[in-house]
Specification:
single chain; alpha+beta; PH-domain like; 5-stranded antiparallel beta sheet
C-alpha cells in the first residue's frame, strides 16, 4: 500500500471511547512541487524557442499562442493540485464509526455509523480488483475511497473489515 494515499496507523486499546482504527485517505499525486517546477521550465523554454522561431519567420501572431499554452498548462496543474487537498478521514471507536470528508475548498462533512452494524461493501472486477467501496448500515450507503487505486482500496478494505470484525467479536 502506498503511504501517500492511505495513512492507517492502528492502535488496539480496549477501553471504550479509544480509537480502534484510523485512516486518512488522500488522492495520489505523482508530481511533486519540485517536479512541477522542472516541468514548467521545460514547457516555458520549449514554447519560448518555438515562439522565437515563428516570430523570426514573420508569423508573430502564432507566438502569442505559445504564451497561452503556458497559461493553460499552469491553470490545469493548479486545478489538479487544488483537487488533491480533498481527503476522507475514517475513525472508529467501540461506539462510533465516523467518516469525515474534507472537500478541496475546505468544507467538511461527517457521517456517523454504529460499527457493530456497519459493513463494508466492495465491488470487485476479476482482473482489476476493487473498483468501489461503500459503508452500509440500516439502509444507508456511503461511498468511500473513490480516488484510491485498486491496490490501496484492497489494503484499506482488508484493514477496515478486520477492525469492524474486532468490534463485533469484542
Amino acid at each position: 500500500m502506498s503511504d501517500r494515499n492511505v495513512d492507517m496507523p492502528q492502535t488496539a486499546p480496549q477501553a471504550p471511547g479509544n480509537v480502534l482504527f484510523r485512516a486518512t485517505l488522500t488522492p495520489y499525486r505523482s508530481l511533486t512541487p519540485r517536479g512541477f517546477a522542472a516541468l514548467m521550465m521545460v514547457v516555458v523554454f520549449t514554447c519560448l524557442g518555438s515562439a522565437l522561431l515563428f516570430w523570426s519567420m514573420g508569423a508573430w501572431p502564432i507566438a502569442a499562442f505559445f504564451g497561452l499554452d503556458i497559461l493553460a498548462i499552469q491553470f490545469a496543474f493548479r486545478l489538479n493540485y487544488r483537487s488533491a487537498r480533498a481527503c476522507e478521514i475514517v475513525e472508529m471507536t467501540q461506539e462510533h464509526l465516523t467518516v469525515r470528508r474534507i472537500a478541496p475548498n475546505g468544507r467538511a462533512e461527517a457521517f456517523d455509523f454504529n460499527p457493530y452494524w456497519a459493513r463494508l461493501e466492495v465491488e470487485r472486477v476479476p482482473d482489476w480488483g476493487i473498483i468501489r467501496m461503500a459503508l452500509a448500515s440500516h439502509g444507508r450507503r456511503l461511498a468511500i475511497g473513490g480516488f484510491l487505486n485498486p491496490d490501496d482500496r484492497e489494503s484499506f478494505a482488508t484493514a477496515l473489515t478486520q477492525a469492524l470484525a474486532s468490534v463485533r467479536h469484542a
